[in-house]
Design goal:
This protein is low in regular secondary structure and 231 residues long. The protein has helices at residues 3-29, 202-205, and strands at residues 103-105, 123-125. A two-stranded parallel sheet has the order 1-2. The longest helix is centred in the N-terminal third of the chain and has 27 residues, at 3-29.
Length: 231
């Protein structure tokens, strides 16, 4: 066979393989919810998937906006860089889930189990994390503006360099949490027990909104402007 023919055949094979990729991806996106399913780069927005079994699912860059996943099993799933705007994870199992680089507005994680979850560099504005178990979760560099952490469990969580500006953490359990570099601009910490957190400084407290019931680590003093004026 001549070199010209061989080159032509090789190019034809490559084109066939490239052309088959979208078809394979499209077929994969139609797979039903199941443990370990691969929905990466798929659009699953606006669906009702409550109670789904999706543990260890691979859903990188998935669009789950406005989808109901209440009470679903998602332990160990990878949802890195995904769109989770208005997504409902209420009372879901999200233990050790990866949400690295994920983003969303008004995402509902209410009362979910997120122990050991990784939310590093995620962006969740106005997220509802009330009564959520975030024990040992990693939130390094996360943007969690105006989030609701009331009644959440953040034991031994790593919040280093996270942005919690204007968030609510009243009633949250922050035992042993790492708060080094956390941005606390107008963060409501009235009544919060911060006595055992690590890395907290008076400079950080100076931008936050606490009150006489806020418990601070030994050696730190309450800012003179506490409590903050009502907005």
């Amino acid at each position: 066979m001549s070199p010209t023919i061989i080159s032509f055949v090789a190019r034809a094979i490559v084109l066939i393989l490239i052309g088959s990729v979208p078809t394979v991806a499209a077929a994969r996106c139609t797979d039903r919810p199941a443990a370990g399913v691969d929905w990466s780069d798929c659009k699953k927005n606006g669906l009702v998937l409550s109670g789904s079994a999706l543990s260890r699912a691979v859903m990188v860059k998935i669009d789950l906006s406005s989808t109901d996943l209440e009470g679903s099993a998602l332990a160990g799933a990878d949802m890195g860089k995904s769109n989770l705007t208005n997504t409902w994870f209420v009372k879901s199992d999200l233990t050790k889930v990866s949400l690295v680089g994920a983003f969303g507005n008004r995402t509902r994680f209410t009362a979910a189990n997120m122990q050991g979850a990784d939310l590093s560099k995620s962006e969740f504005s106005r997220a509802d994390l009330s009564k959520t178990d975030l024990s040992r979760a990693t939130m390094v560099g996360a943007q969690l503006l105006r989030a609701n952490f009331s009644g959440a469990v953040l034991r031994d969580a790593n919040l280093m360099d996270a942005n919690l500006s204007r968030s609510l953490i009243t009633g949250a359990d922050l035992t042993g949490a790492n708060m080094a570099g956390v941005y606390l601009y107008l963060t409501r910490i009235g009544g919060a027990d911060l006595s055992t957190v690590k890395g907290l400084t008076e400079a950080q407290l100076g931008t936050a909104c606490g009150d006489a019931t806020t418990k601070l680590p030994l050696g730190l003093k309450s800012p003179s402007h506490w409590p903050c004026a009502e907005p």
